[in-house]
Amino acid sequence: MADVNAVLAYLSVIKERDDKYIGGILATDGYGIPLEFKYSEPLKPTGLQKILYGNSIEKFLVVDTIGKRLLLNLQEKPRIILAGDIRLLELQTKFSMVHLIPKTSETQQQQGDIDSHAFSDDEMGAFRVISHSPLTADEFQLLEKVSREMDVMEPFSRLKEALQYVCSDQ
Amino acid sequence: MFRSIKNWTSDFIQTIKKEIAGVKIQGKAVEDFSATRFYSLDFAEVPVLSPPLPEEMAPVNDGLPRELPLEIRSLTEQNATLTIESAAFTPDPLLAESASVQHPEVTLAHVPAFQPDNVCIIPLAFEQLRSLAIQESTVFFAPSFSEWSLFFRIPIKESSALIYRFPIRRTPSPKSLYSAEDIRNAVSYILERLQTVPHLELVGIYRDVPINRIRQLSFEKGKLLFTLLPPKRGRDVILDVLIVREPAEGKYHIGPIVRKA
User: Fold this and answer.
1) Mean pLDDT, range B189-216, rounded to an integer
2) CB of A142 within 8 A of CB of A2?
């Protein structure tokens, strides 16, 4: 069995069709059972804000605004945060944060997009583990153990469904 | 003596009479004040000299005249009768060509003749004027700036109930991970609770299912989907489960697998 006390957090920010940005963070135990769920209200930048921020608006919203706020509001203390977007790894946080990329033919093509100087790139089973700083041995072992027990990416699908529901509801 | 005095007196009187008789009064007698005549001087020929400065003044005994001669050459008679005549103002074409008022381009020719027919009475739109005044005060005295928020305000919400709506998915685990005894015990658990021994199909073995919190359970392409009840006091009972299906009735049966560490 996985470590029941182990807490993972899944952080994701999505962009809906009508330019709405919404983010959420789902803290789970080692079985993927929810412990805490927080989400931002859907945010649609104005035309003026788009002009003023230019191309950087998406990164600013995803990382500096929504992602940062979600991490600040998280009450659980996750041992590892799994980021749904590689840009979220730029968040300054005391927690270890990784981005998992399944080893498929499509994702192999993304290898060139990842700056090898800025990120640590490890392999764990069927995943590539991208992080700013390499995980400690304990953290890496925990991640391996959880990924054996369950589909480690599965909570992301729940998180996305919940965020889409919030967006459609408002 | 008295005769000589008498002669002198009569002579004196006669002399006075003669003198009085020679006096002629020219002009009319002042009978009507309105007939008073005024005389104006014609100063056209009078030279006007500016007085010299004191230091330039010649000595008194320089022989030059100190007073200017004033000669009255002619007198022009003017009638002081005041007459008021009314006439429509029309620009004098000669005057209009020559006269100008400050700006050389603006002449009296540009001034239209005043005619009562040209007067247009324009009704004052007080409401419009009032609104104009408000607009002026808004623009010039109280400019309002649109508040464009450059930064984003992100309210963060929390909802455990929301995330419980969406099912947790479990992929089936291979049977090779379990011993034959574990599987047999799970199947025995199911058969003990059935009255008959029906034909059963194995759906799959799923790991880490919180069996005491399942609200709803379903399957999708071999995956187990389950939603959860709110957390209860105490710890969740998490077990691996073996799930079989009864094709005749379409029922699913769950048997727990106690994994040996």
Assistant:
1) 88
2) no
CA–CA distance, B189 with B254 (Å, rounded to integer) = 9
Query: Looking at the DSSP assignment, which residues form a beta bridge with residue B113?
Result: none
Dist CA A2 CA A29 (whole Å): 9
For residue A157, give the nearest of A72, A32, A71 by alpha carbon.
A32
Q: Is the dihedral of CA B52, B58, B60, B63 positive or negative?
A: negative
Secondary structure of residue A21 in the 3-state scheme: strand
Q: Which pLDDT score, from 0 to 100, does residue B10 have?
A: 78
Which has more confidence, B75 or B259? B259
Residue of B nearest to A67 (CA): B154
> Nearest to residue A91, comparing CAs of A168, A166, A161, A23?
A23
* pLDDT for B137: 45
Chain A interface mutation, best of B147, B150, B165, B166, highest count of A Cβ atoms under 10 Å: B166
User: In this structure, what token pair is assigned to residue A20?
Assistant: 């709405």
B246: Cβ contacts below 8 Å, ≥ 6 apart: B198, B199, B200, B201, B252, B253
The predicted structure's pLDDT at residue A156: 96
Q: What is the CATH number of domain A8-99+151-169?
A: 3.30.420
Residues A159 and A18 sit within 8 Å (Cβ to Cβ)? no
% of chain B surpassing 90 pLDDT: 17
Contact B156 A158 (CB under 8 A): no
pTM comes to: 0.63
DSSP-based helix, strand, coil % in chain B, nearest 5:
30, 20, 50
**Predicted pLDDT at B9:** 77
**pLDDT above 80 for B5:** no
Sign of the dihedral defined by the CA atoms of residues B242, B248, B249, B250, in that order? positive
Q: CB–CB of B163 and A158 under 8 A?
A: yes
Tell me how far CA of residue A33 lies from CA of A29, A57, B67, B204, B219, in angstroms.
Answer: 6, 34, 129, 20, 18
B82 backbone dihedrals φ, ψ, rounded to 5°: -95, 120
> Which of A31, A49, A66 has the CB atom closest to B208's CB atom?
A31
Task: Give the count of alpha carbons within 13 A of A135, CB side only.
Answer: 26
- pLDDT-above-70 percentage for chain B: 48
3-state secondary structure of B176: helix
Span A137-160, mean pLDDT?
92
A65-116 pLDDT, tens digit per residue, is 999 999 999 999 999 999 999 999 999 888 899 999 988 756 555 555 666 6
